[in-house]
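Encode chain A's predicted structure.
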Amino acid sequence: MRYRAPLAETQGLTLYSNQTYSKTTRLYNDKVMVLMVDELSAVFAALADPTRRAILQRLADGDAQVSDLAAPFRISQPAISRHLKVLENAGLISRNRVATARFSHLEPDRLKEASEYMERYKKFWGESFDKLDGALASFQRDTPPMGKGRDV
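Encoded structure for chain A:
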């Protein structure tokens, strides 16, 4: 006999009758799911979209209203607002209201954290490419050039 729990339904999982399921289990699983989406992952997910990257680039010049941010794109203002919400949830921007206008402001600290994270891997790849360059140079020194008089 199968029993579908509310949390399991949202995650595409099935619990069987011999498994126990309690409110405590659900609360724990909900908490784990929240922890799995850490702040850095949210930043990279937000940066994955070219429209959001363009919005951040525009906000680097200064605060802007939604209508100003929507102008260069062929998408609706509500779509831009959804992009802004993703950026805000990732901590990349903040939004504030001045009278009836709502301005978006770039929050560079999260970008700095992402940049520092990537810098560690940049050093790794730099070292790996240096080793590869050395190996290729050694291989080219030890291998006679192809051309006349060489059998292939």
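The chain is about 60% helix and 10% strand.
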